[in-house]
Amino acid sequence: MEIHWNTKLRAVNETWARRCDKVLYFITSPRNRSHDVIALDIPDKRQTLTDKTVFIHKYLYEHYVEQFDWFLKADDDTYVIMENLRFLLSHFDPEVPGYIGCQFKHFSPQGYMSGGAGYLFNRQGLRNLVEKGYNIPARCRHKGGAEDIETGRCAYKAGVRTLNSLDIHKRPTFFPSNVFATVLGLPDWAKNYMRDKVTTGNDCCSQLMVAFHYTGPKLMYAIDFLLYRVTVHGKRFMGEKAGQLFDGAEVEDMDRKLRRRPYPGEDLDQYYTEGWRERNTTIFINPNL
Questions:
Q1: Long-range contacts of 192-196 (CB under 8 A, 24+ apart)
Q2: Rounded CA gap, 110 and 283, in Å?
Q3: Within 10 Å of residue 243's Cβ, how many Cβ atoms?
Q4: When you count CB atoms within 10 A of the terminal residue's CB, does the N or C end of the chain come out lower?
Q5: Could you tell me which residue ranges the Fringe-like glycosyltransferase domain spans (predicted)?
């Protein structure tokens, strides 16, 4: 949002975004336009998040798909530890279609990635999403619905596999809540949605955690300061053991019982009706799977 230009966006730009190879801000009717600020001619409300995300992915595909290996979509209240993200991504081939983030377990055979925690498509994943998803009539939903769910459904239909973001100890790296909830205890809704079991305290997360949501500007600056300006005297990092922390694996499709949940605002029987799916341009998930 334009109203957040001097608050949220400034905090992002002055903290973790500085460590990206390329940053683009997609904003509805921005007053200050530049090569890094892209105008969205889409109403600025929650109901249009799917519309915006489809536009963003198509824009990245048209202008940058050959220039970068990975494409991160993050909110203006997401904080990302870029060094840890790069290390995690180094375990995967950008030419094998993939999609990674905080995996939720409902609404699709392979679930979907939380939008707030940030998620990434690799180069071939973005190609598939656009060429085999958005560009096929009635295959993916382009408007309405929940942005992250629709992105996950489209990715599945386009042959983009979900990639494992857990470390070898089954500890998450992406989180749908802020750093306090991440350490002290996630809310029940997050526990119910996340594919993998979560805990609290020292085992809440990987040492190489990557991202968390609901991070306001003040907290963003504080986290950035503690991560990059403070060192504990005598503390040794895990060294070469870090190279053994991730396995670079794909994630198997969800058990049917885990994903048999109606989409918000829809009935399961209605969803399996071809006419309803065509009107809402969403994908078909076989009820027998």
A1: 193/104, 193/105, 193/106, 193/114, 194/102, 194/103, 194/104, 194/105, 195/103, 195/104, 195/105, 195/111, 195/251, 195/254, 195/258, 196/103, 196/166, 196/170, 196/172
A2: 13
A3: 11
A4: C
A5: 6-170
Q: Which amino acid is at 205?
A: C
> What is the spatial distance between Cα 101 and Cα 56, in angstroms, rounded to a whole number?
18
- 194 DSSP β-pair partners: 104
Cα separation, 3 vs 121, whole angstroms: 28
34 backbone dihedrals φ, ψ, rounded to 5°: -155, -175
* pTM to 2 decimal places: 0.84
Tally: H helices and E strands in the chain? 11, 11
Instruction: Name 209's bridge partners.
Output: none
pLDDT tens track for 77-128: 999 999 999 999 999 999 999 999 999 998 888 999 999 999 999 999 999 9
Distance CA 121, CA 94 (A): 9
Half-sphere exposure of 30 (CA within 13 A, CB side): 17
Alpha carbons 56 and 71: distance in angstroms, whole number: 11
What whole-number distance in Å separates Cα of residue 210 and Cα of residue 126? 21
Domains of the chain and any CATH numbers: 2-280 (3.90.550.50)
CA 273 to chain centre: 29
Instruction: List, for residues 226-262, the tens digit of each pLDDT value.
Output: 999 998 877 776 555 666 788 888 887 766 555 545 5
Helix (H, G, I), strand (E, B) or coil at 225: helix
- Amino acid identity of residue 197, one-letter, is K
In angstroms, rounded to a whole number, what is the distance separating the alpha carbons of residues 286 and 289?
Answer: 6
Residues 124, 132 contacting (CB under 8 angstroms): no
Q: Give 103's strand partners.
A: 113
Give the whole-angstrom CA distance, residue 136 versus residue 142: 11
**Encoded tokens for 230:** 């403070």
